[in-house]
Design goal:
Chain lengths: 187, 439
Amino acid sequence: MDSQKLSDIPRAINMVARGLSGLAMIANASGTLVVLALVVLINVDVVSRNLLNAPLSGTYEMVKFLMVMIVFLQLPDVVRINRLTRSDGFLAVLAESKPKIARFFARLIDLMSAVFMGLISYAVWPELLRSWESGAFFGTPGIFTAPYWPIHLVIILSCALSSAIFVTKAVTGRRRPERLHLEESGA
Amino acid sequence: MSPFEIGLISVVAMVAMIYLGVYIPIALGVVSFVTIWIIRDNFELPLALLKVAVGDSVTEYSFATIPLFTFMGLIVSKAGLGEDVYRVMNAMFRKIMGGVGMATVGANALFAAVTGSSIASASVFTKVAVPEMIKLNYNKRFAVGVVAGSSVLGMIIPPSAMLIIYAIVAEQSVGHMFLAGVIPGVMLAFAYILAIWVMSKVWPRFVMQDGKMVEPQDQEHLGAGQMLLLCLPLAALVLTVLGGIYTGWLTPVEAGAAGAALGLVIAVLRGKIDLKGFWSALLETGHITAAILFLITAASIYSRMLGIAGIPNALGSFLETYQLGFVGVMIILVFLMLFLGTLLDTASIILIVVPLFLPIVEPLGVNLAWFGIIVVVGAEIGLLTPPLGISCFVIKSTINDPSITLKDVFMGALPFAAVMLVVLIILIEFPILSTALLP
């Protein structure tokens, strides 16, 4: 009975990890659509302003809003596929001689990252309550306004999901340091 | 302990954590958070700063340049513009010894004017230029070294992701940074071509196997009209993007969007892109944007921490007491960047170094666009130096030839890193090279 429970735990963790990955991928796909929206929006603005002499109102504010969406909808997926910028030369070298220590380090790093991402969610939480209750908005009244709360909500959910993905990485330790290689950071 | 001492320890701790393999934004954020907490003995303050940094860093209009130019770069790579300019350059230079190398540099410089990333350049030109050079009996190390060295041009010649990142942290105009990068980038390209010419005269064995040249057999003849036609799409893109910014007709954000749209039209007209390729370019853009902007967010917490600990002020008065002056600051800066360059990527170096040095150089009355060029070029040298040169890694993984080791790539890139250092010194000595085009 006890041994059966023990084998249930890794299975449960696996399921959670897969579920979180699924969420990250959904967020990622919606974030990808937002990138497309950004390209389209600015081009429509440039064309309508220069050719039709009719600038879109609120483009400036919309761009800012879309940027938040792009970054925080993609962030959990960036964490999931290990594309967050890091310099892992040392870990890779260590893994060749002392694989256990290297893996321990890698888990520790993921755990610390989980705590930090959680802190961001925790820090922004009061902001969400405030912007939700007060109905604060950005933009110029009469031209274009949008409420602040969706921005805060996306940041909190994104960082919480990233934190959870880091936790599963730390728990399963599935990522092998010896197979790490430097992922590009857009550089 | 004074705040200054705590701050200094935390900078060292941060660099150590990064070397150990902690994600760079996490290292920047965690260390800064804990440092502010210790200095002020207050948990609410770092929490409030974290909140402000996350909210503010992302909601900035000019940040939209990052996804737009990234997307444009990915699309034009798929559209095959790099291969086209390479064909043109090759037809011009092929008969000279080291000519394919020169053609690679020239093509890279032109291609760089439509992409902002060295990674894109490195992977495109590894595929087209390296096999050709090996076929023509070039030294393997030289072949991969040229591609590695010239890929750096992608990040200096505008539009460049690194110039954007500097503009953001230093609160400079993205458009001005782009204009400042034109002359230094072109200069570096010519310096490379000159270096290849000199190498083929004094050290032919490094350029060619056995030091002899093989006459190319299947000479491709391109007429002037054909060359012009091949360069036309690229010229249209450069004219739209840089011309638009230079004349003030487009903001950098709009220029990025227009360039992306135009690049997409070119790719579609040539049948080089399908829906799947389009989606993967968008996906890649999103990933890169999120990674870079999260890094920028963390760096803004770090720069606030430095301010609270009073590090830039203390560093400034330290330099004053020892009478190091401007030259001393520059020497320290260059050495620090070369040191960090051994293990960090360019964006991280810029984000770590700029908040430290900006408060020091600003009172000296220097032009901040010029300072940006110095930082970007200095940080780029790290792309070519072992143990961790990202360009070299990309080339190694693209090339798929076990007879060329990572060491070969690094050894081949070394002369080009040296050329970069010389160019960097010239740029430091003559700020006018960076500021001439500024309005």
